[in-house]
């Protein structure tokens, strides 16, 4: 691993390794924690007012008892403040408060403002809010707060918000910090500083640029450099946001047009407060940090060096640069601590080591802004007086806000009123003159003015016209006035109040003296913060994840997640499942699905093909996914494979194992691999070389024989850490006659280890531990649990005071509790049924800056909004404990598929080395056995379960294929018996006194034979559709002169709708159910043998039946056919496994019978297939007696059947092999007879 380190500033070093650069501190200094206020003179303390001289602000020093023991104002209200002048700018890291000594006066809550000049105050922000500090609850205890981020200021102002109920505002304070010094340069918007390189052309591999700036302008270039090859770097302000552009150049011969990235950071940066910027670049990797918020990105292009010519300029561009310089304004404001790759630019400029000739007047101090901002909240107004006896109204101001609506100005005129408001982001002026008819005038201008930027408003009304101008754009004028006297008072009533900031307020062409307003000498105000704009951009940094669009009002923000693939208050939670395995257990069938392998992680969703019908659930994806997405799939999959094939004619593939290969392929890690499909890593052979059956035994690949005939080497690549194939280099195709064809198949993966990753907790004190959970602003946790215990802690992670915990509090309550610094929060979800039922239950919890959510089994849910003001960061330090920890009630049972912020914790691996915890969990069938439908049997597996469908007419992972779409059906478009499926033998021992037949059909044609069972004798059983569409059952058994015939349904069933038929014969009793109708009971005559025989396989078909009902033949759809244990359609269509089934004509699998049938199960009272134990015993005894009698007197034909059907399943390598990968084994020994089916 190559590491580069360079000193770039007095106390820091830049280290770059693995394409990542960081700044490391290299000095050891004293902690920045000096007491700054104690040594100050009394004159350094000022206040809004003083109760008496003994309560002067100079006595407000921590632990001092001078005067009255602290500061108290004349009135205890929200307009009071205490101010400290530190003398020079210093770095402040903490603040501490006390109440007034030996009194009932203290401050319980306060805000902190800071400033360089004693004007244009900035409130201290924390966690995205104007922070309110917790104060004191008595007079003597000291409450100290370490600032989350240090501030640099000369003046500090404390604003009491709440105070003692028994007394008044009382305060003693201490400020902690250390000295601060920096070179400052004032930029006038004209001059620039040119930093010239030692060489005319510089090829720069790494850069570190650091500076601080403050400005009242929203536009301006901060730094710029460019080169003749098209390389450049530009940092500029645009609309109050910071934009960084870096171009490292492209190949001049390349035809590709590369879109250069433009990184945007911050907003409201024209607030005339200091902002810190650090740009770190190593090759194409860039870290861009603004005010402690860092973004990472990678530049486009093909090169790693930044080629600059001659110089780098700060403050603007000295001339029109080649790519982007046109129309850019230079920076106007102040910069300090400018460092470029270790050089202190401000110090060099002070010592005149740099070119500053473009400055008209270069100064090394910051020029103050002359604006006086005013901050309005929901209950604020400011009242100013205009000139009386004046026939003109002229007002102007600048405003900024996030709200689309609000009243900006209201004025009572001598004969009417004037109202200027913000409506849906537009400024409207409404004038109403009461003394004239038709004197109402409305003027509107602008759009989208609630964007947080400063906008200029000018309104003029004089004589017979009015004019509204927004940002210099004149809207319109309208005649309405006579020369009447207009008296105006400018104010803002409470209704539709404005929330935002104003500055440069002018009334009748006079700039309002807001200092006099603050001192009470002019106008009036209420709940207005003067000389401060406390606007906050709640969308910066953007808490909307995964590309969610952030919109905001003054008090809150919201996220639009449309089109992102994520949902929730912050677009944190993926709407897609993480694997095909998860879709499978939602009952989904094979299809194209979106999956999100890391859930709420950084990887986006992508499409894959999920094949649910194979031995395991198989995922197939193409190369539209990124390599990171593919890696997430292969890492969690049980097995992955990719088919490769090389067809050749005189084109060698790998050469000998000792020779240089002609062809190689590149995998996931960009490494070359010299083995081919069917072989393994490190073995330079093809599949035929492994199996020793190559065309030429001297070579290990067919193609390496270099023959003129077409040959092929193909096989599966199965080492998943190398997959997928990203490149293939073919090297032997340039000789005369050489030809080759390369085929690379899709990547196919099966299984999801994370879905079944489980651990069993066997003792109350057993637990697993993992590294600290990182979920500061957003966290999601999901898992499945199964237990018989009434309570237990699922997981817990602790901090100093913060924590997060999930637990089963009682048999019916799951709890999610946490504390981010605002006090403990607990969400409880109640289940109507006990959760300690040894069944799997799913728990998901999410916590973000907007809300907390707890959900149980995807249906029971509780949501708790986050407080508007307060801490938002979850700071944890201990290890994450899964199970019992810290004396908590331990969990007994199983936990599986534990995911935290999209990352699956490997419970099984950790459980292998942890006492009291075992990997895996048994008993999956207790929870999931219900998914095995239609008689399928649930088979327990180590990491899940599977359904054994071998004894049913159904297939698929849940034995539902044949019941729901897609189904095993056959479509017939034939005449006569040209298409028929023949079952030549029975797979099970047959009871000749009973048949169970079930099938479904749909057709619009009649007559036809639906099903026919025959033998070499004249015995048969048939179900036919008559000419009128009614259903008929026909039996021809031994002893009957004519076939026994019964009409099953008098309705026309040839109506194109799906119909199901169940027929059961037990001796002479026949039970029939058609569709969802009740069961019909029939009895056949006594003259036939109840043990009818189909002795030998044959095709003796009743010619009368064929002539009458099988012309022109069945045209329609058959599905779900099962006779006793035989499923002929399933056997015929499962061609991959040999079965004793044959068919004539074209047999096609179709989805024509895909309409779901809604036949309710028969009740035990009426269902002949569901009998209680007593009835079964009576029936068996009756049957035995009847059999003895019939054998002696009426028996004509005999036959028994034996089978070894179960042997195939017993020899299968796993339950999956027996259930999904193979078909029933139809091999059996035949004693006398076989039946044949014609369908």
TrEMBL record:
Transmembrane helix among keywords: yes
Keywords: Cell adhesion, Cell junction, Disulfide bond, EGF-like domain, Membrane, Phosphoprotein, Repeat, Signal, Transmembrane, Transmembrane helix
A GO CC term assigned to this protein in UniProt: membrane
SUPFAM superfamilies in UniProt: Concanavalin A-like lectins/glucanases, EGF/Laminin, Fibrinogen C-terminal domain-like, Galactose-binding domain-like
Keyword NADP: no
Biological process (GO), any one: cell adhesion
UniProt domain Laminin G: residue ranges: 184-366, 371-533, 757-921, 970-1152
Domain Fibrinogen C-terminal: 571-614
Gene3D superfamilies for the chain: 2.60.120.1000, 2.60.120.200, Galactose-binding domain-like, Laminin
Subcellular location per the Swiss-Prot or TrEMBL entry: Cell junction, Paranodal septate junction; Membrane
One Pfam family hit: Laminin_G_2
Domain F5/8 type C positions: 32-178
UniProt family annotation: Belongs to the neurexin family.
Protein name (database record): Contactin associated protein 2
Taxonomic lineage: Eukaryota, Metazoa, Chordata, Craniata, Vertebrata
């Amino acid at each position: 691993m190559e590491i580069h380190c360079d000193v770039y500033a007095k106390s820091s070093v830049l280290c770059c390794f693995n394409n990542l650069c960081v700044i490391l501190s290299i000095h050891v200094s004293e902690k920045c924690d000096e007491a700054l206020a104690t040594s100050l003179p009394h004159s350094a303390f000022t206040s809004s007012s003083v109760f008496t001289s003994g309560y002067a602000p100079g006595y407000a020093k921590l632990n001092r008892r001078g005067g009255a023991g602290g500061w108290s104002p004349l009135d205890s209200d929200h307009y009071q403040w205490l101010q400290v002048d530190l003398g020079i700018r210093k770095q402040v890291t903490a603040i501490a408060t006390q109440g007034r000594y030996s009194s009932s006066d203290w401050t319980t809550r306060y805000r902190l403002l800071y400033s360089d000049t004693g004007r244009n105050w900035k409130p201290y922000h924390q966690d995205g809010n104007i922070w309110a500090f917790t104060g004191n609850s008595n007079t003597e205890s000291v409450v100290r707060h370490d600032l989350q981020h240090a501030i640099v200021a000369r003046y500090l102002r404390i604003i009491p918000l709440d105070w003692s109920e028994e007394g008044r505002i009382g305060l003693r304070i201490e400020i902690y910090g250390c000295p601060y010094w920096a070179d400052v340069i004032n930029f006038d918007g004209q001059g620039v500083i040119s930093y010239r390189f030692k060489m005319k052309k510089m090829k720069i591999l790494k850069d570190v640029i650091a500076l601080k700036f403050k400005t009242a302008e929203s536009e301006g270039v901060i730094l710029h450099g460019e080169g003749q090859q098209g390389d450049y770097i530009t940092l500029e302000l645009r609309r109050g946001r910071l934009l960084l552009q870096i171009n490292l150049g492209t190949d001049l011969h390349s035809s590709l047009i590369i879109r250069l990235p433009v990184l945007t950071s911050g907003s409201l940066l024209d607030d005339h407060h200091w902002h810190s910027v650090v740009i770190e670049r190593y090759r194409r990797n860039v870290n861009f940090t603004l005010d402690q918020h860092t973004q990472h990105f990678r530049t486009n292009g093909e090169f790693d060096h930044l080629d600059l010519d001659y110089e780098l300029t700060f403050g603007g561009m000295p001339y029109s640069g080649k790519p982007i310089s046109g129309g850019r304004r230079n920076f106007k404001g102040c910069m300090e601590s400018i460092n470029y790759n270790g050089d202190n630019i401000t110090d060099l400029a002070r010592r005149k080591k740099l070119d500053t000739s473009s400055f008209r007047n270069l100064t090394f101090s910051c020029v103050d802004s002359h604006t006086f901002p005013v901050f309005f909240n929901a209950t604020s107004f400011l009242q100013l007086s205009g000139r009386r006896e004046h026939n003109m109204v002229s007002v102007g101001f600048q405003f900024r806000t996030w709200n689309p609506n609000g009243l900006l100005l209201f004025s009572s005129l001598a004969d009417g009123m004037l109202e200027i408001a913000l409506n849906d982001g537009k400024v409207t002026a409404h004038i109403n003159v009461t003394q004239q008819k038709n004197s109402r005038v409305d003027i509107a201008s602008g759009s989208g003015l609630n964007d947080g930027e400063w906008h200029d408003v000018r309104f003029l009304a004089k004589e017979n016209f009015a004019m509204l101008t927004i940002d210099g754009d004149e809207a319109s004028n309208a005649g309405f006035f006579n020369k009447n006297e207009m008296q105006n008072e400018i104010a803002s009533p409470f209704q539709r109040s404005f929330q935002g900031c104003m500055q440069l307020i002018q009334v009748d062409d006079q700039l309002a003296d807001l200092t006099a307003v603050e001192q009470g000498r002019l106008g009036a105000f209420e709940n207005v913060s003067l000389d401060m704009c406390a606007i906050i951009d709640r969308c910066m940094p953007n808490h909307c994840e995964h590309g969610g669009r952030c919109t905001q009002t003054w008090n809150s923000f919201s996220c639009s997640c449309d089109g992102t693939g994520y949902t929730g208050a912050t677009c944190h939670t993926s709407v897609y499942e993480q694997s095909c395995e998860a879709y499978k257990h939602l009952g989904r069938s094979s299809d194209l699905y979106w999956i999100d392998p890391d859930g709420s992680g950084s990887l986006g969703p992508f499409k894959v093909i999920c094949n649910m019908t194979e031995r395991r659930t198989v995922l197939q994806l193409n190369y539209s996914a990124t390599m990171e997405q593919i890696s997430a799939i292969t890492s969690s999959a049980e097995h992955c494979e990719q088919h490769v094939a090389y067809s050749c004619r005189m084109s060698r593939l790998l050469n000998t194992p000792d020779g240089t290969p002609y062809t190689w392929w590149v995998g996931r890690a960009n490494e070359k691999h010299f083995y081919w499909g069917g072989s393994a890593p490190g073995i330079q052979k093809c599949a035929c070389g492994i199996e020793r059956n190559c065309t030429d035994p001297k070579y290990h690949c067919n193609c390496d024989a270099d023959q003129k005939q077409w040959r092929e080497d193909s096989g599966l690549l199965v080492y998943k850490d190398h997959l997928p194939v990203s490149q293939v280099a073919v090297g032997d195709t340039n000789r005369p006659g050489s030809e080759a064809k390369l085929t690379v198949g899709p990547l196919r993966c099966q299984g999801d280890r994370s879905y079944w990753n489980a651990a069993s907790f066997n003792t109350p004190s057993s637990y697993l531990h993992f590294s600290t959970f990182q979920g500061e602003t957003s966290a999601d946790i999901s898992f499945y649990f199964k237990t018989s215990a009434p309570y237990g802690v699922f997981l817990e992670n602790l901090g100093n005071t913060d924590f997060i915990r999930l637990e089963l509090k009682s048999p019916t309550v799951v709890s999610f509790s946490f504390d981010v610094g605002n006090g403990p929060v607990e969400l409880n979800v109640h289940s109507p049924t006990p959760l300690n039922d040894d069944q799997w239950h799913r728990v998901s919890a999410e916590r973000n800056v907007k809300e907390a959510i707890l959900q149980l089994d995807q249906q029971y849910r509780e949501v708790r909004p986050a407080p508007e003001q307060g801490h938002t960061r979850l700071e944890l330090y201990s290890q994450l404990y899964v199970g019992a920890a810290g004396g908590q009630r331990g969990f007994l049972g199983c936990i599986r598929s534990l995911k935290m912020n999209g990352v699956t914790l490997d419970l099984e691996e950790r459980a292998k080395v942890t006492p009291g915890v075992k990997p895996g969990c048994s008993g999956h069938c207790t929870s999931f056995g219900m998914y095995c439908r239609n008689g399928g049997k649930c088979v327990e597996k180590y990491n899940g379960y599977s359904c054994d469908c071998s004894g049913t007419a159904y297939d698929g992972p849940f034995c539902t294929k044949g019941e729901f779409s897609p189904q095993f059906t056959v479509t017939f478009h034939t005449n006569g018996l040209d298409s028929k499926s023949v079952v030549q033998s029975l797979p099970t021992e047959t009871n000749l006194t009973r048949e169970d037949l079930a099938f479904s059909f749909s057709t619009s044609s009649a007559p036809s034979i639906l099903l026919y069972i025959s033998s070499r004798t004249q015995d048969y059983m048939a179900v036919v559709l008559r000419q009128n569409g009614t259903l008929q059952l026909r039996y021809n058994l031994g002893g009957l002169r004519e076939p026994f015939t019964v009409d099953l349904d008098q309705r026309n069933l040839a109506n194109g709708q799906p119909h199901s038929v169940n027929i059961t014969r037990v001796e002479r009793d026949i039970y029939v159910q058609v569709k969802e109708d009740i069961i019909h009971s029939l009895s056949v005559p006594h003259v036939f043998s109840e043990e009818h025989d189909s002795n030998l396989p044959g095709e003796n078909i009743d010619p009368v039946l064929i002539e009458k009902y099988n012309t022109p033949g069945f045209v329609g759809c058959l599905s779900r056919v099962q006779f006793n244990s035989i499923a002929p359609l399933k056997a015929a269509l499962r061609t991959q496994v040999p079965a004793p089934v044959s068919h004539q004509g074209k047999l096609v699998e179709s989805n024509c019978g895909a309409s779901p049938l809604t036949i309710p199960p028969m009740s035990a009272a009426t269902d002949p297939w569901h009998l209680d134990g007593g009835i079964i015993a009576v029936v068996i005894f009756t049957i035995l007696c009847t059999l003895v009698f019939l054998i002696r007197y009426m028996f004509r034909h005999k036959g028994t059947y034996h089978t070894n059907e179960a042997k195939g399943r017993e020899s299968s390598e796993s339950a999956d092999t027996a259930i999904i990968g193979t078909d029933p084994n139809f091999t059996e020994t035949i004693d006398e007879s076989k039946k044949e089916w014609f369908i």
